[in-house]
Amino acid sequence: MTDEHYDDLPARLVSPGPGGSGRTSWEVTPKGLNIIEELAGRGCHLTTIAQVLGMHVATLREVRKRDPEVDEAYQRGLAREHDALVGNLRQAADEGNVVASIYLLKAKHALYDQPSPHSATNVQVNVDNSGVLVVPAKQSMAEFLEERRAAGMYEGPRVDAVKRIPGQKKPDISEGVLDPETRRSD
């Protein structure tokens, strides 16, 4: 077979040389370099690229270590994929996608929710919210307090003993005054 025939292959196994001493090795052709770059640019796994070249993934890893051209083709493909994905994220962020914007800030500009342990202004704030009562939207205040009382988690006044709960709508005056305290505007 001629060398022209081998150039049509993406990779070929090369004999050890004259005298047959040494071991055979894989050589990636220019066609193979283009395939590596294209598939890496499409996000294909290294195993898939190796399969297309006709070799095992471990062999392709060894070829990448030995042949800088092969690794450069792979890195160019990864860079092309990276640029395309960042472009898609950037477009989504420009169209108002908040999650894409946050991700880009974190990934591209090292903006994190937590301060760096190496930063000089490492401030910790503790907030005691034990006095805050959070009532689920599906329950009224009275239902919530009765549920807590039944579970033994609340010992305050009974709901039916309270004439007016702060934040609750004031009763209509035309119905008569239920309690003299309700006239106050507090």
Written account of the structure:
This protein is mainly α and 186 residues long. Among the domains are: 3-82, no CATH class; 133-168, no CATH class. It has helices at residues 3-7, 30-41, 46-53, 57-66, 68-94, 98-109, 141-150, and strands at 11-14, 25-28. The protein has a two-stranded antiparallel ribbon with strand order 1-2. Helix 4 (57-66) packs across helix 5.
User: What is the end-to-end distance?
Assistant: 99 Å
Order of helices and strands: HEEHHHHHH
Beta-strand residue percentage: under 5%
How many distinct beta strands?
Answer: 2
Fraction of residues in helix = 40-55%
What is Rg? Answer: 35 Å
Contiguous runs where pLDDT drops below 50 for at least 5 residues? none
What is the average per-residue confidence, as pLDDT, rounded to a whole number?
78
The secondary-structure class comes to mainly alpha
Strand order of the largest sheet: 1-2
State the shape: elongated
**Oligomeric organization of the protein chains:** single chain
